[in-house]
Every structure is written in C-alpha cells, then in structure tokens.
TrEMBL record:
This is Argininosuccinate lyase. It catalyses: 2-(N(omega)-L-arginino)succinate = fumarate + L-arginine. Gene3D superfamilies: Fumarase/aspartase (C-terminal domain), Fumarase/aspartase (Central domain), Fumarase/aspartase (N-terminal domain). Residues 365-433 form the Argininosuccinate lyase C-terminal domain. One of its GO terms (biological process) is L-arginine biosynthetic process via ornithine. GO terms for cellular component: cytosol. The lineage of its organism: Bacteria, Pseudomonadati, Pseudomonadota, Betaproteobacteria, Burkholderiales. InterPro entries: Arg_succ_lyase_C, Argininosuccinate_lyase, Fumarase/histidase_N, Fumarate_lyase_CS, Fumarate_lyase_fam, Fumarate_lyase_N, L-Aspartase-like. It is found in: Cytoplasm. Keywords: Amino-acid biosynthesis, Arginine biosynthesis, Cytoplasm, Lyase. Belongs to the lyase 1 family. Argininosuccinate lyase subfamily. GO terms for molecular function: argininosuccinate lyase activity. Pathway: Amino-acid biosynthesis; L-arginine biosynthesis; L-arginine from L-ornithine and carbamoyl phosphate: step 3/3.
Length: 459
C-alpha cells in the first residue's frame, strides 16, 4: 500500500518489514494529547494571521474534539501504514473535516511538530516527577521527625564510624531529592521553548506568528534557530541525566533499606506489601521493591547512554534517528513515576527498630573520636590524642570489650589527661549532642532541619 502523505514521488511501496521498521505509531501514539494540543494552537494562529478561514478552524476544532473522544473511548483506529501519531491523527481529521484537515499542516512539518509534542509531553512529566519528589521528601521528613533521638551507627567504608541519629540519616536523602527536584526544574527551562515554526528545518514562507503559538502552549520563548529547533534533543538528554541521578539516589537508599532489613542487621522492617516471600523457603520476607528499584536504575542510566549516543553522529538538521528518542524517554518517565510513587508510600511505612540500632552503635567503638576530641580539649595535640585512643581501642579489641567498659583508671593508662568526666563523652547521647552546629547530627539541629525541610516543602 502506498503512503498517502508522501508517496507522490515513489514508484513502489515499502515492504511490510520496512513499514514496520520505520513506523513509530505503536509507541508515539502516546503523544496524541500533546499532538492535538499543538495542532490546535497552530491552527488558531494560522487563522489569526489570515492563512486559515474561520470555517476551516471550526471544522478542525470539531474534528479534533471527535478524535479526542474516539481515542479516549478506544474507538480510534491506529494504523501502522500511517507511520506515526501525527499522520494517524491528520488522516482521521481529514476524513472528518475534509479540506480543512488537509490545510492544518500549512507552514508546519512533522519535524517541528514532533519536537513540539515531545517537549509538551516532557514538561508535564517533569511537573509530575517534581511533585512526586516532594511527596517522597515529605514522607522521609515524617519518619525523620519521629527519630531525632534514635541513635544508630553511622558508617564509612561500611565500618562503624560515629553515632548519628536516624532522622539525620534520612534527611541526607531529603537533601538529595531536593537537589533532584531543583535539577528537574532547571531542565524544564530549556524544555519549555517552542520549536514550532521551524517547519522542516529552514522556517516557512508563510507569515506565521510563533510568539502567539508559544503563548497559547505556555512556552517561555520560541526556539531562536530553526535548524537547532528540529534537530537537537539535548533537552531530552539533560532530562535523562537528571532522571539518572534521581535513580542513583533511589538506588543508594534501596541498598541501605536492604541492608537494614537483613536479619543480621535488623534496623528496620518494611511493610509486607512491599516484600515478597519465597516459594521454597518459608521463612523469607524479601525486600523486592528496593531491589527492583536498584535494578531499574541500570535501565535508566542505560537509556541516558543510548540517547547521548543517538545524538552524537547526526549532521544538522533533522534525521530519522531522532525517532529513537521516544521509547527510552517514555521508559525513563514511567520508571521514575512508578518508583517515586511507591517509595513515598514505602518510606512512610518504615518500621524503625531503635533497640537494634542502639545495640549496633554500642559496638565498634563509635565514640572513639569523642574520646580523642576530649583529650584535645584538655590540651593534647589531635594526632597524639588519636594515637592514645587507638591504643585504647586495640586493648579493647584484644580483651573483647568496648571503650565504655574500661574504668577511668584503665583509660588513664593511655593518657594522663583522662579525667573523671571522660566516661560521659563515651555515651552515644553525649556523642551526637556534641555535634551541635548547622548540618551536624545533634538532635536539636536535626529537629531544626526537619522544621526547615517541612517549611520548604510546604507540608
Ligand atoms: N515519527 C517521526 C519522529 O518521531 C516524526 C518526524 C518525521 N519526520 C520525517 N521527516 N520523517 O521523529
């Protein structure tokens, strides 16, 4: 079957396989709402500048309304032979509105049309993702607020380092997701420029009003160069990069949830609805959701690499390569939306086990730094204090006890500066309370950060 939209200069039809190979309607039909939105704005402008009659505009509007209804109710017949979402909708419009439908494409090309559609669609997705990042942050803030006095060991190298409060640990993720939202909104600025009017690549000979279309569609500005407008997908790559960072943060959180939930650690429990059992081992409760999120991170990062590579060899202006931008973009947006939705719900339901956290913090000499700091405050240079405490730790390791198990007299064997008040700094509470400055883990600082995050998030 010959292609109605462009087969005029062809002698033979494309093979069935080539048709399938080149068609995108199976996936780009998802852009239909934004395609119609763009077409209506274009038609309104054509009428405003006197290119399209009022009757034609009315016929296009009525036809599009019918098409919206047909697509929403599942009656619309998507045809592979019509290649993509644009030609499918245009063909149906022409069937409904006659010549008016054929006039819609005046001063426009599918090249600027698709670039417009994808930006309109991406803008909506970004807004959704930013909203979900806010919800996830609020869920974490809620749990943080209840745990400003819950002490667990903080780790470096996955070795016990210093005690921190659990709320502080969760607020670290709030910071990451806040930056992610900021990044998304920054990408949005560059997504929100109007390509329409660039036509195929050089602009159009019709007296179009691009600013008017930009206003109608809510774009901040028109793309200033027609070649650039139809050909670059850097905005999509930026979005994928920002999305990759969201997933990297989700993945790190997932890794921690998995470790914390391991029975060997037992710091938290996740609600049953985010876990699955084993068909062979009756005792299992596996953290499938965080594991899958960690896995899906690879997929999003992979799409980023795919899109960068898609772009790198393309000469100006539009090339069909760009049709390959859609599946990765759709998959990235879907993965983020689903993941963030689930994580907001899952984070809200984290069941904290403070006794297990505390028991772990009491092992591993988490307050050794506090003892060194104590000696420094009594006049010992830090390097010497470090050395003295390291020897005390070594002795404890040999005896199989903790620093706090040593008496003041025993501690004094490592430094004459150890006073009767030394034991107080070895407590977990003393250690966290001492880190009392902006960004530190002291409970009152964490409470202040909880309040500040809440104010920022408007929750
Ligand atoms: N389906 C195409 C895409 O996604 C639309 C633009 C096609 N333009 C063209 N000249 N064949 O990029």
């Amino acid at each position: 079957k010959k292609h109605e939209a462009w087969s005029g200069r062809f002698d033979e039809p494309v093979s069935e396989l080539v048709q399938r190979y080149t068609a995108s309607v199976d996936f780009d039909r998802r852009l239909w709402r934004h395609d119609i939105q763009g077409s209506l704005a274009h038609a309104e402008m054509l009428n405003h500048v006197g290119i399209l009659s009022a009757d034609d505009l009315a016929a296009i509007r009525a036809g599009m309304e019918k098409i919206v209804h047909e697509i929403e109710s599942g009656q619309f017949e998507w045809q592979l032979a019509l290649e993509d979402v644009h030609l499918n909708i245009e063909a149906r419009l022409t069937a409904l509105a006659g010549d008016a439908g054929k006039r819609l494409h005046t001063g426009r090309s599918r090249n600027d049309q698709v670039a417009t559609d994808i930006r309109l669609w991406l803008r909506d997705e970004i807004d959704r993702i930013v909203g979900l990042l806010g919800k996830l942050q609020l869920a974490l803030v809620d749990v943080a607020e209840k745990n400003t006095d819950t002490i667990l060991p903080g780790f470096t190298h996955l070795q016990v380092a210093q005690p921190v409060v659990f709320g502080h640990h969760l607020l670290a993720y709030v910071e990451m997701f806040a930056r992610d939202a900021e990044r998304m909104l920054d990408v949005r600025k560059r997504v929100n420029r109007l390509p329409l009017g660039a036509a195929a690549l050089a602009g159009t000979s019709f007296p179009i009003d691009r600013e008017r279309v930009a206003r109608t569609l809510g774009f901040d500005a028109v793309a200033r160069n027609s070649l650039d407008a139809v050909s670059d997908r850097d905005f999509a790559i930026e979005f994928s990069a920002a999305a990759s960072l969201v997933m990297v943060h989700i993945s790190r959180l997932s890794e921690e949830l998995i470790i914390w939930m391991s029975p060997r650690v037992g710091f938290i429990d996740l609600a049953d609805r985010f876990c699955t059992g084993s068909s062979i081992m009756p005792q299992k409760k596996n953290p499938d959701v965080p594991e899958l999120a960690r896995g899906k991170t690879g997929r999003v990062v992979g799409h980023l690499m795919g899109l960068v590579t898609l772009m790198k060899g393309q000469p100006l202006a539009y090339n069909k390569d760009n049709q390959e931008d859609k599946e990765p973009l759709f998959d990235i947006a879907d993965t983020l939306v689903d993941t963030l939705t689930i994580f907001a719900d899952m984070a809200a339901g984290i069941r904290v086990k403070p006794e297990a956290m505390r028991a772990a913090a009491l092992q591993g000499y988490a307050t050794a730094t506090d003892l060194a700091d104590y000696l420094v405050k009594r006049g010992l240079p830090f390097r010497d204090a470090h050395e003295a405490v390291a020897r005390a730790v070594k002795a404890c390791v040999e005896r199989g006890c903790d620093l706090s198990d040593l008496s003041v007299e025993e501690l004094r064997a490592f430094s004459a500066l150890v006073g009767d008040d030394a034991k107080a700094v070895l407590t977990l509470e003393g250690s966290v309370a001492a880190r009392d400055h902006v960004g530190g883990t002291a409970p009152n600082q964490v409470r202040a950060q909880v309040a500040a995050a809440r104010a920022r998030l408007g929750g």
